[in-house]
Amino acid sequence: MRSLLIYTPIVTSKLTYICDFIFRERLGLGYRFVTEDGNYSGSTDDLKLHYVQMSAEGGTEGMSILDSEYFSDFSRDAIPVFDKDIVFNEGRSSFDLFASCFYLLARVEEYGTEERDEHGRFLSSQSILAQKELLEFPIIDYWIQILQQAIESHYNIELQSPHYTFTSTIDVDHLYAFKHKSIFILLAGILKDVLSLRFQKLKDRSSSDDPYDIFDQLLEWHTSISLTPLFFMLTAERNTYDRSLSPSHSEFAKRVKQLSKYGLGLHPSYDSNKALFQLIKEKQKLESIAGQPITQSRQHFLKLKFPTTYQRLIQAGVTSDHSMGYPDRLGFRAATSSPFSWYDLEADCATELRVHPFCLMDVTLKNYLGLGPSTALAHAHKIITRIKEVNGQCTIIWHNSSFYAGEGWAGWQEVYLNILKMSKA
Question: Rounded to whole angstroms, what are the CA distances from 170 to 88, 219, 397, 398, 423?
Fold first, then answer.
């Protein structure tokens, strides 16, 4: 691995974190810091970069990243200045790339924000990316790509390029639409269908095939194109927002054992976001049924609050979370399509929790944005194309319940299958 020498007067854990992500993870480039100008100018390293204010003395060799003093005088209220495109003029950046990347990756803007939606979630409209109309662009990935090109041109070398990948994830909020429900729930559902004149659902209730039970088809679709899906199982007793089959039911165990042969993660319940003991209980229950450790999760309703949600996941033994996205908007909540380590601002350190962003969700396309199948597919194609352009990592969310025509999902099976096809490398 080639190595880059970085001159900066002050080294902080925040700066180290973002350099790890940019250079080691994305560009496969090692680096080391020096804080004395003599150690920088006098070194024989062939790759150099200085991170100082443009008016500062020292570190005049090599490329330059503008230091806005964001890290040396850090405040959660400070918002770095950035544009969609970063420009390197004679090797000098047009803005503080390190500060902007940190602000967006560490989700600094979500700390201390009081205004939330009815589920306690950060509003996408409050995001600086939404305000700048950049939410649907993986702009950190773009910036790093431009940085890579600038380094290669400046030093006449070739760096490692990231590889595009695709992952389809399935949230299992409901194993079945009708089967294995209690008499009370069945009767209540029938009454609701009658009052709402939902005759198709009334007819489907008498069918031997449950419309949510399409797991065999899902597995067949994925394996036919050499993809391994990742399933997130809601493992909680029924309440207002958690309405899956009881994890104590034999049918639940049967399905978990089938899906555990592929990819399996926990879908923490609505209430577990407020109680660590509930999260641990659900995780242990799923592990007991699956007969294997469960280290991946995605929050039910995408209930994600910083820093408590991730702190609790770490305490529960989760090492990978897949909740980084908005329910009502397509795009990139943290400005990247690529996984990254979560930085805990309270502890002021990087953690072992890996965050896996997603870029689109079925419910976002149909319910929040009100798109039809053909228009939704066009939006999906636009997002996926942008990820491919930066060799990013495309992750989507679908639900096993989002194929049922009786609930408005006619034509969406074709959308999903076409997304699978277009998302292949």
Answer: 41, 11, 6, 5, 16
Residue 26, classed as helix, strand or coil, is helix
Q: Which residue has the tokens 């199982």?
A: 233
Q: What is the mean pLDDT of the chain?
A: 92
Residue 405 has pLDDT above 60, yes or no: yes
To the nearest 10 degrees (0 to 180), the angle between helices 250-259 and 276-290 is: 70
Predicted confidence (pLDDT) per residue in 91-100, tens digit: 899 999 999 9
pTM: 0.93
With a CB cutoff of 8 Å and minimum separation 6, the contacts of 58 are: 7, 9, 37, 40, 41, 50, 52
Mean predicted confidence (pLDDT) in 166-194: 76
Is 57 a residue whose pLDDT tops 50? no
Q: How far apart, in Å, are the Cα atoms of 97 and each of 87, 115, 120, 223, 306?
A: 10, 29, 31, 40, 23
CA–CA distance, 360 with 337 (Å, rounded to integer):
11
3-state secondary structure labels for all residues of 299-325: CHHHCCCCCHHHHHHHHHCCCEECCCC
- Cβ distance 164 to 394 under 8 Å? yes
Q: Let me know how long the chain is.
A: 425
State residue 419 phi and psi, 5-degree precision: -65, -40
CA distance 380 to 370: 14
Phi-psi region of 156 (alpha: psi -120 to 50; beta: other; left: phi over 0): left
The torsion defined by the Cα of 129, 130, 132 and 133, in degrees rounded to 10, comes to: 110
**Confidence tier at 58 by pLDDT (50, 70, 90):** very low
